Amino acid sequence: MSTVVDDDLWSAIGDPTRRRMLDLLLIGDGGTATTLSQQMTVTRQAVAKHLAVLDRAGLVRSIAAGREKRYRVDDEQLTRAAAQLASVGQAWDARLQRIKRIAEAIQRPSAK
């Protein structure tokens, strides 16, 4: 069972600060680095750097809004991430089932 995983995507999602930013963008239907920094315990500059990582991974899209950029979550890429996570979960479930069967076979008394 082979699962193709986008490492850049999961590297971006792997950071708890970026996951919180995605949550805030989803709840607020978008936002700027300034509005996000007001809701978090990190600076605007740090938020901007995290947004750049999310943008490179395709998880957010930006639109110029005056002097700032307004960011929104890319629903298609987020759906892709969820599908990858489900696929990885299924692969691990299958592996664990095989391990369980092997362990049960080892513990069964030999039939002689």
List keywords for this structure.
mainly alpha, elongated, 63% helix, single chain
Q: Specify the CATH class.
A: Mainly Alpha
Shape: elongated
Number of spatially distinct domains: 1
> In total, how many beta strands?
2
* CATH H level, superfamily name: Winged helix-like DNA-binding domain superfamily/Winged helix DNA-binding domain
Give average pLDDT, whole number.
89
For the largest sheet, list the strands in their spatial order: 1-2
Indicate the structural class: mainly alpha
Summarize the structure.
The chain has one domain (7-107): Orthogonal Bundle (Arc Repressor Mutant, subunit A), CATH 1.10.10.
Q: What report would you give on this structure?
A:
With 112 residues, the chain is mainly α. The chain has a single domain (7-107), classed as Winged helix-like DNA-binding domain superfamily/Winged helix DNA-binding domain (Arc Repressor Mutant, subunit A, Orthogonal Bundle). It contains 5 helices and 2 strands; from the N terminus they run ααααββα. It has a two-stranded antiparallel sheet with strand order 1-2. The mean pLDDT is 89.
Blueprint of the fold:
Layout: H1 7-13, H2 16-27, H3 33-38, H4 44-56, E1 60-65, E2 68-73, H5 75-107
Antiparallel strand pairs: 1-2
